[in-house]
């Protein structure tokens, strides 16, 4: 098999783990179909401690009437802790690196890395938060991996029956690091 074949296999495995359009449950899809998108809020990355994957915990004003500040902050802090766990370098990371070099990275066709396992935990956590906390309030968090790990996107939905003057607008929470 040529390198293109291995790349195709690797890409298919990535899509299977991270780009699965059917992982959203029925209640979340009902939210998308029964309500109209009114606004989007973007929680920016926090680069105050370097380039580690960490998001700002500043509460966006657009969410004040939708969710309690503590629930939002707990969600972002938990995500930040998961990303810190994923980026932690330890013995397992070194072993994975050595195995990757020894097998010309073919080991990853049949083995998940620790980082991939944590990303799956994050996706599951976001799905649970959407189901239990955010969807009942007309909100939906998008996994940061779908936005290149640059922002946490929170979509704000309104019932189709109610009139929303802010339809189609978007706002940005926090400052953009340049």
Automatic annotation (TrEMBL):
Return the annotated region ranges for Disordered.
Answer: 159-178
The subcellular localization recorded is: Golgi apparatus membrane
Q: Name one GO biological process term.
A: protein targeting to membrane
Q: Golgin subfamily A member 7/ERF4 domain spans which residues?
A: 41-153
One GO CC annotation: palmitoyltransferase complex
Spell out the Low complexity composition-biased ranges.
162-178
Q: How does it sit in the membrane?
A: Lipid-anchor
Cross-referenced InterPro entries: Golgin_A_7/ERF4, Ras_palmitoyltransferase
Q: Which domain of life is it from?
A: Eukaryota
Q: Which UniProt keywords apply?
A: Membrane
What does the sequence similarity comment in the record state about its family?
Belongs to the ERF4 family.
Q: What name does UniProt use for this protein?
A: Golgin subfamily A member 7/ERF4 domain-containing protein
What's the source species' lineage? Eukaryota, Metazoa, Chordata, Craniata, Vertebrata
């Amino acid at each position: 098999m040529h390198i293109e074949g291995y790349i195709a296999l690797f890409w298919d495995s990535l899509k299977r783990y991270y780009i699965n359009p059917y992982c959203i449950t029925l209640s979340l899809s009902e939210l998308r179909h029964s309500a109209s998108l009114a606004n989007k809020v973007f929680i920016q990355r926090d680069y105050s401690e370097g380039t580690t994957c960490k998001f700002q915990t500043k509460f966006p004003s657009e969410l004040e009437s939708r969710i309690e500040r503590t629930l939002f902050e707990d969600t972002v802090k938990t995500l930040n802790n998961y990303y810190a766990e994923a980026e932690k370098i330890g013995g397992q990371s070194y072993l994975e690196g050595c195995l990757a070099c020894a097998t010309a990275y073919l080991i990853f066709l049949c083995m998940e890395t620790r980082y991939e396992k944590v990303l799956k935990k994050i996706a599951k956590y976001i799905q649970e938060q959407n189901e239990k906390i955010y969807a009942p309030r007309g909100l939906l968090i998008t996994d940061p991996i779908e936005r290149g790990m640059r922002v946490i996107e929170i979509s704000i939905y309104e019932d189709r029956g109610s009139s929303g003057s802010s339809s189609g607008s978007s706002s940005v929470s926090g400052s953009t690091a340049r």
